[in-house]
Amino acid sequence: MKKYFVIFSLAVPALFWSCSSDTDAPKNAAEDERINAEFAQPVATTSSLDLSAAQSAAISGYNELGWKTFEAVLNANPAENHSLSPVSINSALSLLASVEDESDSRAKLVNTLGFTDAAELDDFNRQLLSFLPSETNGVDLSLANSLWLAAKYTPEQELVKSVAEFYGATLKSVDFNDVSTVAMINAWVNDYTRGLIPAIVEKIEPSTLFCITNALYFNGDWKKAFNPEDSYDGKFTSATGSVKATYMERLDELKYSQNEDFRMTSLPFKGGKIVMDLILPDDGKDLSFAEYTSLCSTATTDSVALTMPKFELTTDYSNLTDIMKQAGIPQFNHYMTRLGIPSYEPCYINRFIHKMFVNVSENGAEAAAASFIGMAMAADPDSEQPASPYKFVSLTKPFYFVIREVEHNILLAVGHVNDPSL
Fold this sequence. Notes:
By secondary structure, the chain is of the alpha+beta class.
């Protein structure tokens, strides 16, 4: 059976953890606001990225980490629907690297994100934060970052300033022993995902020192909408059998590429800055990152007859810690002396949560993603198509999708639709 892959990559702002000594710790909301007012600056938007040669070269590795995570969750449960946001996950990990002391763990983390220099990684995230957001031309894309810090710690002010400058993150002093902290973090995620992800975490261990939260929201209109009058009910062949689906159809001039195992077409959103790639594999074929990038690089404009289902996905990865470790992210020996944590008490990643929502219809797509990283003290098609001027892409079986920024190929979201009826 063919798997259909929808690759969806959403950019989500990273929220980061900070810690430091017990003296002069923020004790109340007024002090939190004073710190944020002093350091947090509005992030100016820009229409282009001014990347160094090293940063441009690092994008492939940056995207590949998100892809490895996607492959891991897909392979663990291949019969289920999957979607996640590489840019959300990577933003959180980038901030972790930013607040960490120089160490082998930090160097490995930076390298796993595709970079060799932490300063280049910080600047790359600063530019993404100003480049990706949009509220014009039929696309609403927003990123938000926040840092939740145990009240007994006071971060170095230069570090707070750096986190605000490069990641747009605000800081909140909290008590992780207080259940209201969970409600506060979930309310923040709910607000910045426009209610699409009401909560990110159910419980936070009292031993948590700091946590990072990321929130992404995306709502884009297709450059050319599907005609609802052309939509019809049909059957979608999932991994477990035939299910009902509502299909959309259109004939259009679209980007298209194919090889022996895959066909791909790209649906642009208004403004042309973001597209959704739709990839149809042959039976039994899994889409690798190398194959996906090859399809993108060889795509040309062609006449495409596209059939695709409307779908809505909600995914909840409540514990990605082991998967991230397998992807190369060091779990232990993170030193945070700039956050006030003594060097003889290294931190470890004790929680890694990621959630995503995606809805695709005749008018466009709406999506949201959220990430949570907690840090604690370490213990250590089937038949041949007839001749036609159109390239046929009929997504009537499991498929991949990707939401991608076009100029620099930043992956906003990746996903796999096994059953659009769920």
